[in-house]
Structure formats: C-alpha cells, structure tokens
Amino acid sequence: MSTNIGLCDTMRRECRRLVSRKVYIFAMVLVPVISALFFLTLQSEGLPLKAPTSVIDMDHSRLSHNFVRSMQANELVNITSESLSFHDAMDKLQRGEIFGFYVIPQNFEKDVIGGRDCTLSYYTNITFYVPGSLVLNGFTRMSVTENGEIASGKLASKGISDRLTTVLLNPVDVQVNTIGNPWLNYSVYLSNSFIPCLLQLMIMLMTVFSVVSEIKHGTSPEWMRTARGSLLIALLGKFIPQTILFTAVGYLIDAMLYGYWQFPVGHLGNMLIAMPLFVIASQSLGLIFVSAVPNPRLALSMASLIGILAFSVAGFSYPVASMYGAIGIFSYILPIRWYFLIYIDQALNGIPLYFSRLYYAALLVFPLVVPAVAWHLRRALLRPVYVP
Amino acid sequence: MNGTLHDIKQWFIDLALVFRREMHLVVTDAGALIFFIGLPLLYPLVYTLIYNPEVVRDIPTVIVDNSRTARSRELVRNADATEAINVVGYATDMADARRRMNEKECYGIMLIPEDYSKWTGRGEQSHVTFYCEMSLLLRYRSYLQALTPLQLATGADIRTELISSLGAESMSQGATINAVPTYLGDTQQGFASFIIPGIIILILQQSMVLGITLLAGTSRDRRAANGGIDPLEIPASPSATLIGKMLTYVVIYLPMTIYVLHYVPLFFSLPHIGAAADYLLFSIPLLVASAFFGLTLQVLVKERETAFVVVVFTSAIFLFLSGLTWPRYATYFPWNILGDAIPAVWGAEGFVRINSNGATLSQQEHCFNMMWILAAIYFVTSYILLRIERRRICRGYRPSPAPLSE
To answer: Per the CB 3.0–4.6 Å rule, which of A174, A193, A199, B108 could disulfide with B151?
Structure first.
C-alpha cells in the first residue's frame, strides 16, 4: 500500500539528498551541536565573580584602609587598582580596565568619629549589564556592612548588648530564595533558551532551503512525480526524515543539558515529548514562509529575519509582558516561545503537566496551519521558476 | 621603470573597473540590497522597539501574610509602592501562592511569618522570605533592586522606634553614612540602552558579511552555469579585485554607518555622549575588516542560497563573544581567542565605551588597532583563498558541486 502512494520513495529520495551535499549535515547537525557546546562552555564560571574595580581613597586613614581591605574580601568585586583621582578612575573605566569604582571622601574617619554625616559614593558602569550589576550589588552590600559595623561600634560604646545591636542594625531580614536556580547560574538560563532558539533558526532555514533548492535546480517536478503527484505525500516524504534527524539532534542537546551538565529538570519525560512537537512546529513555520513566498531570496530572508529576531522577541531576557503589546504579540507566532514556556514549567520549575497543557496544544497548532497555505506551493513545484 | 609605472596605472584602472562592476552587481541584486541597505535601515529600529520599554516594572507578586498586623500590612504597602513589585493579591497559604505562581499569575511570593512584628515586643530580628521565580534573570534583578532598599527603609523606621522605646534618643543623632550609587553609561539602567549600542555594531558587520557571501554565491552560480567562468568578473589581479570590492562595500556602508551609529541612538534617546568624530573614525576599520572578513568567509558559500545557512546563525554566537551580555574576563578562554578574531567584537566593545561612556578614540586605541590588524589578516587570507580558487579554475575545476539532478 505504502509503496503505491510513494511515501517511502520520497523519503528515500530525501535521505539521498541529505547526504549528497555537505551543507545539509553542516547546518542540520554540526551547527546546532557545536553551538550548543559553545553556549554550554561559554562561561568559565556560573557567575562572573571578582569584577575588576578601583577605589579612590581620599582619606588614607586607619578606617578607610580597613574598609578597603574588607572590600577585597567581597566575592563580587576585585579591587585591581587604586586611583588617585576621580579623573584617573574615570579614565580607567572608559578604557575598559575597570567596571566601577568606589570613592571614600576626605575626612571620612574624622567625620565618623565626630558623629558628622558623610557620604560614600560608588560608580558602576551599568552599560555592561552583568558585570555592572554585580559591581553595584557588591558595592551596595559593602556600604551597608560598613555602615553597620560603624553603628555597632557606637551602640556597643553606649552599653547596648550584642543581641540587641543585631536587631537594631537590621530589624527585618528579607531573604530572597531563587526557585529552581539557587546558584544563580547564568548558563542554566542562557543554554535552555538560546540553544533551542538556534535549533529553531536552523530548522526554519533548512526547511525553506530544502524546498527552494528543489525549485532552483528544477528538480521539484521530479520530487512531485516521486510522490505520485500528491503535495501531502511530497511534503511528508521530504520532511519526515528531517524531523527524525532534527529530533535526534534535539535529544542530543537535551542529553547535554540535563544529562552531562545536570541542569535542573523536573519532568524529563515531558521535555522529551515537547522536542518533536517543537521540531515539527518549527518546520511548519518554515513551510508556511516558503509557501507564502516560494522565492528563494524572500523566503530565506524571512526565515533568517524571524529566526534571529526570535532570540529577542521570544522574551528570554526581556519579558514579553513588558514589551509593547504590538511587539509582544509576535512572540506567540514562534514555536520557541511555547517551547520556552514548557521548559520553564517542566524542566526549571518541575510543576504538573496540567499547567503547561496549553503550550503543548499551541505547538500542535502550527502543523495544522500549513494546509491553509501549502496549496500555493503546488504550482511553484510543478513549474519551477528560479528568480535569484 | 616605465613598465612599473604602467603596471601601477593598470592596477588602478583595474581597481576602478572592479569597483564599478561590483557596484553595478550590488544595485541590480535585490537580495544584496536587502542586506546592504534594508537590514541596517530596519533592523536597529525593530530591535530597539522590542526593548524600548527599557525596564521591568510592576511584576505581579502575591503575599502570604501570616502575621496580619498593621505592621505587616505596612510592609506590603511599601512593597507595592516599589517600582518592581505589584501586589496582585493575598494568598491564604504557601500552597495557594504556589498554585498562583504555577498559573503564571505571579512571579514572586512574599511570605511574612506569624511573628513578624516580634521586634516590637521581644526585641528580636524577624525574617521575611521572598520566593522568586527564576525563568528570567531580569525579573530577579528587578526584585532584588526593590527588596534591598525596602529592607533598609523598613529597618530604619523600626530602628528609630526601638531606640526611642529604649530611651536612648542620643544614639539616633549619631553619624549617618550615606552611600550613593551612580550609574554610568546606561544611567536609567534600561535594557535597550544597554544592548542596542552593541547590537548595531553587530548588525553592521553581519549584514555586510551576509551581502558579500550572497554576491559570492551568486558569482559561483554564474560560473556553474557558464562552464567555470563568471562572465561578469573583471579579469584583474587578486589585490585589485579584493580592494576594489572592499571599497564598494565601504562606500555603500558609509551612509548606513552614520545612520546606524549616529541617528538610531538619537531616535530612541539612547545613551549617546561620544564625539561623532571619534565613533565615525572608529567605524572605518570595522567596515574594512568586516569587508575582508566577508571576502574570506565567502569561500564557504558554494551557491547563493547557502549564504543564509552559513552566516545567519553566527550572529547569535558573535553576540555572546562580544562580551555585551557576558563579560569577556569570565569567558572560557578558547572562546575569547575566537572572539578576538571577529571585527565586531572589538567594534562593539570600543563603540559602547565611546558612545555610552564618553571615551575618546585614543582611550579605545587597542580596539581600534586590533580591528586594523584583523583587516590586514583577513586581506591576506582572502588574497590567498582567491589565488587558490583562480588556480583551480585555470586547471578546469568546477568549484560548485553539480546539483543532484544534473
């Protein structure tokens, strides 16, 4: 039966095509796997500790020296140099030698002992977001600690007990617990979103590419003949081998993420179910592009444009809820958005499948849209015209 | 002597011919125009629009208040008043709060314990626990930036009260040490202000490389169709060919660069304090190096359409090599070596410091020089590759593998 409809023939033909040119294996296997390794090994540590910073000590007193020493003990910053003036420190910052600096004013010790107000100031180069934020955190923490230390000395001198001093210094302690990623590991966040997004980009590109190269080289009529003239069989025959290949690559990525690198995964099984759905949804989106405009240049441009914008618009770093509504809505036409939401629920937070049911359903919608536009493709395949 | 002069003259004539032909090829190729003109024109706008709301405000947050005192309600009111936190409701217990988090109704839970206001009676420290959903680091960062001042301000209020209840008024008049943070570069701590200045440099390099590889792929297609000879190629020496092409791309990109580096930050009032002379001069080695980088990479492109497959994905990799999001000092060293070889990595770092930190060109001379060095290296590599390719053609090789059907 199946031999009659040509599905097996088309699939066999596609497998031959996939091994006939290096570009297929390069783009479908090597690029996703090597990029995954890149993202997973990018960081030499989970958090970039010890950001290079500087201090301007204009007081040069016992107190200020003590303060600088205690700064050195902070894990977030590393005082790599002492600057003589604000101008000197700013010059280092503009050159990129440091990411922030701390200013201890003149008469710091004198004012503290004399009970006069004084102001410590610190500068952080927040335009480099991650190191800038960490420097900010480190400096803030040190200022609070220093303030407390001085205050506790004063309280002790008034005869207040240690226990009461602790309460007076910090009556309410707010402890922040980070669910799912207690190490604040940046790689957990980065790898779980960017690697699948890159996979989506390559799936969409290769889906479009494999259709337009048939049109370009005029082999599409033969492809349709192999499928006995049925567009459905032609598409199934062409894309089932690719689905299998991409899913295998996806599972390899899953094995790296959750197996070798041991990233949090609540329900591994549910992630494994999501992968083929994600692959098929991405292929469907690529097919929708190439059906809408069966022109190599435009279809590939569209897949590239959307595939690259997906890194931003899918809301991995900047939440969709904070984007302009008219922009944020585009995230929902991307399979990666739904896959990302599934990852958050099923891997990172490990909550019941029930809460992710709609995301799985959304991935299933993509292939259902394909028939609505794919009929357009038939004419382009039967009478291929190559417009570069 | 005359012969040498003649050669030099001929070289310049070839250069001019290559320049004219390449310009013609670009303006008659809609695909190349999309990359050279359309991409730099539109992509920076689209990117900035995505991130333009800049900060994350009013994250839905649920409270579990087991204390139910005037004090705890005050804490909740103060939390609600911070920029990051928007209290969307009270949950009866943690299980209820977790359910609401699972339903994505909130991304943070504040748990106030039964004995929250014990400091009033017993003089003990009390603990508030905050649970933060960690799918997005930006939300965590916003929460943290709201909670630290909240903790300090609440503490200060209580302290004044405690001290007066202890009858030790004099202590509250001790020295106050203020600590004032100042944000440099991205003074509003906005997301677009931080990422866009670096992204636009990557857009310049990547769009140029895409365009160059597309043109190279098209030339190979022509060669495949004409028995190994590209009828539109000028028979000039490799150096004249490469420099002529580079000049074409740089000339096309000069107006685009002024638009991208000068006007785009102005459109969205992003940080833009660098001197125009500094960042425009800085962009020249970026363009030259990107052109030769593209002319080197084109060897990977066997036909027009593979340009997309080979080049597009590298944008995501280069973004992370550039140190914009992840600092280069904490990057695994082999990747830093790879990053050193990418013009836009130096370009992004230098441009961000000039544009956002107000650095001068002389303060960024290292990045500037590195881009010139890369330009020289990629000129040599593209020269060698071009000579190898021409020799192959002379031997009668067909560089493009025949498609399946042929």
So the answer is: A174
The closest alpha carbon to A32, from B403, B381, B317, belongs to B317
CATH of the domain at B123: 3.40.1710.10
Are B326 and B307 part of one and the same domain?
Answer: yes
| CB-CB neighbors (< 8 A) of B330 in chain A | 43-45, 48-49
Structural domain includes residue B355: yes
**Count of domains observed in chain B:** 2
**Residues facing residue A174 across a β-bridge:** B128
Partners of A173 on chain B (C-beta within 8 Å) are 125-128, 151
* Judgement on whether residues B208 and B334 belong to the same structural domain of the protein: yes
Residues of A in contact with B359 (CB under 8 A): 94-95
Q: Residue A129 and residue B194: Cβ atoms within 8 Å?
A: yes
**Residues within 8 A of A (CB atoms), B 308-347 only:** 308-310, 312-313, 315-317, 320, 323-327, 329-333, 335
The reply to whether B231 and B317 lie within a common domain is: yes
Do the domain assignments include residue B220? yes
Best mutation target, B105, B321, B326, to test chain A (most A CBs within 10 A): B326
Structural domain including B241 reads: 9-52+188-394
Residue partners of A283: CB distance under 8 A and separation at least 6: A203, A204, A207, A239, A242, A243, A246
CATH 3.40.50.300 for domain A51-169 = no
**Nearest partner of A141 among A76, A63, A51, judged by Cα:** A76
- B146 shares a domain with B37: no
| CA–CA distance, A286 with A284 (Å, rounded to integer) | 5
In a domain, B179, yes or no: no
Q: Are residues B103 and B136 in the same domain?
A: yes
Give the mutation candidate from B193, B308, B332, B366 for the A interface (greatest A CB count, under 10 A): B308
Residues in A closer than 8 angstroms to B356, CB to CB, are 127
Give DSSP secondary structure letters for B60-118: EEEEEESS-SHHHHHHHHHHHHSSSEEEEEE-SSHHHHHHHHHTTS-SEEEEE-TTTTH
User: What's the complex ipTM?
Assistant: 0.91
How many CA atoms are closer than 13 Å to the CA of A47, on its beta-carbon side? 17
* In chain A, where the domains are located: 2-43+185-382, 51-169
Q: Which amino acid is at A175?
A: Q
Q: Are residues B218 and B125 in the same domain?
A: no
Closest listed residue to residue A99, CA positions, set A112, A81, A114: A81
In a domain, residue B4? The reply is no
